[in-house]
Design brief:
Number of strands of chain B: 0
Shape of chain B: globular
Shape of chain A: flat
Largest sheet of chain B: none
Largest sheet of chain A: none
Strand content of chain A: under 5%
Radius of gyration of chain A: 14 Å
Number of helices of chain A: 4
Oligomer: heterodimer
Order of helices and strands of chain A: HHHH
Mean pLDDT of chain A: 90
Distance between the termini of chain A: 25 Å
Mean pLDDT of chain B: 87
Number of helices of chain B: 12
Radius of gyration of chain B: 19 Å
Low-confidence stretches of chain B: none
Strand content of chain B: under 5%
């Protein structure tokens, strides 16, 4: 169970850091953002792919931290990037399972 | 692993997972109501924040009781974690946890000296209607599996399949308890907004922090018990998906349903409980349940 605690802790810390960072970056009142942020998408894809497929506690924890960083951004930001990251990571997981 | 370490790890997991799930619950409710809603991590941040806030104690409180009750509340749910996810012990201990929780809810309101807390404390007695279907659900699980031990119930399900398929109405009774305990529930008469925050109204600072900690752990334990005794042996991913799905369903129900008045709430719970109880008895006697 220790590994699950590390993952969930990493995800929570990542989410809090993501929230702090995005409020610092976007101070404006709530707007529904439709632009796609490439750097955030890259972080999200790397994060979720590592979280689901790394097979190593430390790398997976880093993955959850990075995934949480984008998913935890203030409301209106990081949604599409998170969705893309999750879809690719789950797709990769299924692909690896099928080819194993 | 050392037992104490196992308990500590499970309590931390229960707190973090419960907080994130309750955050998700608020998010789902907000999206259903076309609001952006708070970030998912907000409930966790709130819980942590209260531990660092100034703690004010009103003059009207019964001091020892007022302070002691929040520690008992936290302790009650830690016992829930130990009896459930850690030891896979008897369901009766978990029923005891719910019973004590009801007493704590009652006493937390009465010790505050506030009219809102006191009204909530009276309603806590009324809302004991939720515990009757829970007890009935546990009895049916015992009748079918022949055991109260969670570990043995898991083993039974790994051989005979999940209990949700054999006693679905008992699962529905348990699910009603989950709806009742979820935030902004139509049955949450003790936390009706007409009573501010009900029995929690007069608890500030780290005392409220302990209450929020207990709320998160309670949510995790309830979902864990429900998934374990009705959905058979699950792995971590199964639990995660199950908990997220149930949180989504309760969030959707609570976002679209107004809070009921106390008498309607109790009548609705007892009616649903009675239908499920007699339905399950009928299923057992007609041989639908093997």
């Amino acid at each position: 169970m220790l590994d699950y605690m590390i993952y969930i802790l990493a995800f929570a810390v990542g989410s809090i850091l993501g929230l702090l960072y995005s409020y610092k970056k976007h101070g404006e009142p709530y707007v529904a953002v439709n632009e796609f942020d490439m750097p955030s998408a890259a972080v999200s894809i790397i994060g979720w792919c590592l979280a689901f497929n790394a097979g190593n506690v430390i790398l997976q924890a880093i993955g959850f931290l990075l995934g949480g960083l984008i998913m935890g951004e203030r409301p209106g930001y990081g949604r599409k990037e998170t969705a893309l990251g999750l879809i690719l990571a789950i797709g990769l997981y299924v692909l690896l399972k099928l080819t194993a | 692993m050392n037992l104490m370490a196992e308990i500590l790890i499970q309590v931390i997991i229960a707190f973090l997972a419960g907080s994130l799930l309750l955050g998700l619950h608020r998010k789902v409710m907000a999206r259903v109501q076309k609001r952006p809603g708070p970030p998912i991590v907000q409930h966790l941040i709130h819980s942590l924040k209260f531990f660092f806030k100034e703690t004010a104690i009103p003059k009207t409180v019964s001091k020892v009781f007022y302070i002691g009750i929040v520690f008992i509340l936290a302790l009650v749910w830690i016992v829930g974690v130990i009896a459930g996810p850690v030891a896979h012990d008897s369901l009766l201990i978990l029923f005891g946890v719910y019973a004590v929780y009801k007493i704590v809810e009652h006493n937390s309101g009465s010790s505050s000296g506030s009219p809102y807390g006191k009204l909530s404390c009276v309603r806590a007695v009324l809302s004991a209607a939720t515990e009757l279907p829970l007890f009935a659900a546990i009895v049916f699980v015992y009748l079918v599996t022949g055991t109260m031990n969670i570990g043995q119930i898991i083993t039974y399900q790994s051989v005979h399949g999940p209990l949700i398929f054999s006693i679905p109405l008992a699962a529905l009774m348990f699910f009603m308890l989950i709806i009742t305990k979820s935030p902004y529930s139509p049955f949450a008469i003790t936390k009706d907004k007409a009573l501010i925050s009900g029995f929690e109204t007069e608890h500030f600072g780290f005392l409220r922090g302990f209450m929020l900690f207990s709320e998160s752990v309670a949510w995790y334990v309830m979902l864990w018990v429900f998934l374990t005794i009705f959905f058979g042996p699950l792995n971590a991913v199964g639990y995660l998906i199950g908990m997220i799905v149930i949180t989504f369903i309760t969030g959707f129900i609570n976002a679209t349903t107004p809070i009921l008045s106390p008498n309607h709430s109790v009548m609705a719970q007892i009616t649903i409980g009675a239908i499920c109880f007699f339905g399950t008895i009928l299923m057992i006697f007609t041989g639908v349940v093997a």
